[in-house]
Amino acid sequence: MRTSVGIIGAGPAGLLLAQLLQRHGIDSVVLEARGRAEIESTVRAGVLEPGTVELLAEAGADARLRRLGQEHRGIALAFDGGRHRIDLYALTGRAITVYAQHELLKDLIVARLETGGGLLFDCPVTALEAFDGSGPARIRYRDAGGEQALECDFIVGCDGFHGIARQALGEREPPWQRQYPFSWFGILAASPPSAPELIYACHERGFALVSTRSPTLQRLYFQCSPDDSVDAWPDARIWDELQARVPAADGVGLERGEILHKNIVAMRSFVARSLQRGRLFLAGDAAHIVPPTGAKGLNLAAADVRLLASALRAHYRDGSDEALRDYSRRALRRIWRAEHFSWRLTSLLHAFPNAGPFEREMQRAELDYLVSSRAAATSLAENYVGMPRDWG
Ligand code: FAD
Ligand code: DHB
């Protein structure tokens, strides 16, 4: 099999890239290790920056999102028993959209299949070859029929943190990374939203986040120990812990309901040293990880593939490789901005095991500043809704 761009991974990065390329008249094939049903049911992120929503419109995959996504014009920071609104819209003129990642993946998969583009499920990629030379690059993968090969001009590794592309790129130096001494416990609950907007709560028992999915579904998270297990947390204990960390508004507590799903998410920061070697490029979680506090993971993946799609268009349409050569530099500028923001928000809102009274006062002083100074709140809001397109 032969195509122009071979894409590894049908996550947000891979599927969105394929659709953007299709719009530019560039053919591609997406190879995905997992099955469609598994991809469409894995619960992950939920906050889309306005720039990501615009990109989904450009990819022709925004119809359901426009109907079912919820626009939020603010978020709340909760600490010391009170809630304080950050008015994202008043400060930046922009709003976020809450829409589940797996719903987005369903939309992108339908868009891909409707346009007749190549998308192969249950096809784990096993090796990448010849991307350094001048002939066709080769992706080796397995399907039900055995060992197969896909020849292409370019390979894009959108295969997540545990994928194969970053290893194939063969970094000479170790990546930049940081592991945090806590994880997030995430739940999906059958109950109406506890609040009209997201609540990020800083409490001495640990961080908590109240998010939503629909008028009947909530998504909530709380900081837990990295060696915690889902089984250690029966439903009543989860609700009590969340309620202890999130201050009630006017005496009204969280909307409890049946817990439909529980998972634990590790917290790390990670940036690969290089996003390119020869005609192999990395995008999304394959290239970088942020702790989820700033809701940046999915949005960064989208920003990476926007740059790549436009650089590949310049290659095929104008015969210019300048933008491809510049991809790493441009993408890394936004990546490091998001890395810093996610690290800062994580440091601000979590209970660190070794923190003493001084560190806690530092957190309180910054929280007080964020909710009292327009300048400080604007900086938070600008990062939260996402840096503008010309940022990289
Ligand atoms: P992925 O979504 O990881 O997709 C990569 C795809 O590549 C996968 O489908 C995988 O099966 C496939 N693949 C891997 N190896 C191979 C191979 N050898 N061959 C073929 N295919 C392969 N972000 C937030 O902002 N908020 C959250 O609450 C949040 N929760 C998360 C929870 C979990 C458990 C995880 C893992 C991530 C979470 N994230 C969250 C981050 C966000 O979901 C990611 O940043 C986003 O999914 C990145 O998209 P991606 O396409 O780069 O990678
Ligand atoms: C959600 C996830 C996040 O990481 C975040 O910062 C806000 C919301 C969510 O899943 O809804």
Would you state the CATH class of the domain at 2-72 and 97-177 and 268-349? Alpha Beta
Question: What's the gyration radius in Å?
Answer: 21 Å
The N- to C-terminal Cα distance equals: 34 Å
Helix content: 25-40%
Strand content: 25-35%
Domain FAD-binding: 2-341
Protein name: 4-hydroxybenzoate 3-monooxygenase
Keywords: Oxidoreductase
Organism: Chromobacterium fluminis
Task: Provide a descriptive summary of the structure in words.
- This protein is of the alpha+beta class.
- Helices cover 36% and strands 28% of the residues.
- Strands 1, 2, 8, 9, 10, 11, 17 and 18 form an eight-stranded mixed sheet that branches. It has an eight-stranded mixed sheet with strand order 6-5-13-14-15-12-16-19, sandwiched between helices. Strands 3-7-4 form a three-stranded antiparallel sheet.
- Helix 1 (12-23) runs parallel beside helix 9.
- It is globular.
- The structure holds flavin-adenine dinucleotide and 3,4-dihydroxybenzoic acid.
- 3,4-dihydroxybenzoic acid is lined by residues 45-47, 98, 198, 209, 211, 219, 292-293, 295.
- It comes from Chromobacterium fluminis.
- It holds the Pfam family FAD_binding_3.
- InterPro entries: FAD-bd (IPR002938), FAD/NAD-bd_sf (IPR036188), PheA/TfdB_FAD_monoxygenase (IPR050631).
- Residues 2-341 form the FAD-binding domain.
Short descriptors:
FAD/NAD(P)-binding domain; globular; binds flavin-adenine dinucleotide; FAD-bd; PheA/TfdB_FAD_monoxygenase; binds 3,4-dihydroxybenzoic acid; 392 residues; eight-stranded mixed beta sheet; alpha+beta; FAD/NAD-bd_sf; 19 strands
